[in-house]
Amino acid sequence: MRIYTALSITLLLCSCTSVSPIQRDARERYSVTARTSNPIVSWRHLMNVSIGHAAEFCEQEDKAMHQVDIGTFGVRGFSPREADLRFECVPRWQQQ
Questions:
Q1: Each residue of 41-71: pLDDT tens digit?
Q2: Which domain holds residue 59?
Q3: Bridge partner list, 67
Q4: Are 29 and 54 in contact (CB under 8 A)?
């Protein structure tokens, strides 16, 4: 029973989060935004979703994701919230 409850809560949290397509900014930098209207979803979850999406994007190019900037916007429980990530895809040897 606990497994079903935990699974239901996880699905509730994740199902209300959307991720924008990767946008190319100037100088080989990219941006991605995770959004939610669910008051239960944490800021950390929003940031992790955008970081995970960016890491997958860079991995497709056989590179590593380097976070340039991340910001959060909105008021928890009162308005839609978002986490905006700016990042670069760098060769793996530069990441170390």
A1: 888 999 999 999 999 999 999 999 999 999 9
A2: 2-95
A3: 87
A4: no
